[in-house]
Amino acid sequence: MLLTRFKCSASFLLLCVVVVLSGCYTRNENSAAETEPAATVEQPPAADKAAPAATPAPEKVNVNLYLEISNGMKGFMPPAEAGKEPTVFQSRLNKLISEIQDGRYVAEKKYYLAREDKQGQPVLDSVSYNTMKSTVVSGIRANVLGTPLPDLLKAALEQSVKQNAVSVIISDFIHGPHPDKRGQFISLDSDIRSSLKEAEQQGLAIAVLADASGFYGNYYPAVKKPATSRTLTGEEVPFYIWVIGRQQEVLAVTKNIFRNLPPQQAYFGFDYKDVPFSAILKANQFRPAGTVYCASRNADPCTAIKLLPEKSIPVEFTLGLDLSALPRQLQQENYLKRNLKVIGSGCKASLVSVTAADDAVRASPDLARYTHFLRLQVPQLIGTSGTITLQLPQVQPAWIDAWTTNNDNNPAADPKKTYQLDKIIDGVQALYRDQRTYLFNVTIKFNKAD
Amino acid sequence: MIQKFFSGLYELLLGRPLPANFTNDYREVVFPNTGLQLVLITLAMVILYYYVFNRIMSTGFYKTQHWVIMLLINAVIAFAIPLIQVNNNGIETHSYTYMFAFVNTVYSLVLFFLFSILLKRGSVQAWTTPMKWPNKK
User: Fold this and answer.
1) Residue A2 has what pLDDT?
2) Which CATH number fits domain A273-393+439-448: 1.10.10, 1.10.3470, 2.30.29, 2.60.40?
3) Which one of A26, A27, A293 has the shortest CB-CB distance to B21?
4) How far is CA A6 from CA A3, A273, A373, B45, B58, in A?
């Protein structure tokens, strides 16, 4: 009797336990059923062609290298002598062509010497690696006229587009129009724009790298007064390397082939449609302040949040961004801090700080996906819902103005300046002005916390 | 619905979950889990006392002191549940967590008493524990 009672009570207890346990909600972080709907709604389709950030950098690229050879370029490439240091131009170019020729990142390579023929038309002479190398190390012997800048760019670009290659154009970029066509000085920006129109139409991006090199020999300034030419003995004269191609390829070239880039860099037509980002709300390294939490418990990445700033406790939280696809120089914390714009709609928002990922962050699997962490502060809401948008505008780098002059006649007195460089750059910028105002754009949605 | 009910029940005394970044975890997981477990375990304890110990098994545990022991065991369980829930869900421990455990304990006392009043009339030996009211015989 007692045994039956005990059995009975035991089964009853068991029943109770089962009921208790089955009633529980479980937190299942990997539950696909719960995570996926949120993720699909908030993430734009990444497979789209217009999402360069999602496409991986190409393994190998085709490179066409164009070196302008004109009398004005001779001074960069003085003939080698024992005991004489090569110029910056020579050593940089030597490394560059060697990397193109023998490095593992280039598939098809072609070298061209750009000059002008007797009719004033640009000519691109296809040459071997050895000819290119000997031109760089022992100089240009023949008397050659340089081709005007817009024509050079246009010819090189057409050639590369045909061959599906990245153009690397090296020149001093001193504009020397034909004496009969002096008007080109005034229309330089629009001429540059027209000459590069194809780049814009083909969706190509442009990187401009500038460096200065010792110059030995006759220097031909754009401004011919008081002297039409000057003899320089090691004064620094700027030269430029333009890289034109598809965004990913340009980045691959600047990263893998140039290796150490000069500090003067400018990027045009770069566009990142899909920068991966997430509000980082639960990491120990980036604790939020005030009332802020992700709108959906399991969302990863978290792109919608709920917040409720109070007068004494403004909301502060961290946003993780993966900016690894950007050019290195634009990834610098200072650059981002200076140029990033935070636009709150329905709230007041500001950028507190920008930090790049350090080793501790990279070791944490949830955070390792992001390269930069932006601390945002929201002191006040204006509506019950809205968005916070982060934009990185296309900014003209400061060195461009510093390297610009309106009289390049005496480089000894005023070194490292190029005649009307700003106008040339204006022409390039005009190409992309209307469709690519921002390098990237990230929008996080918010609702007032309930 | 159940989530809202239990979140409301706990936040009534506790205020918003802290740290705030775990608000969703509290509202969607911890509060409803704790609330459901509280109700079911308390119910089980009451049934165990009145119907198992004092009806099926006819043990001698029918006095008020035995009832109080059951009440306290239930309270200890009720204190433990929130701590276990918070831990298992990877939520940072905060003074809020202990306040939550305390509030849950208080709720367990109230609930145990309520269930006792409702269910004690079905007991053979303990229908007057902890007091005769509201049963009449």
Assistant:
1) 45
2) 2.60.40
3) A293
4) 5, 69, 62, 16, 11
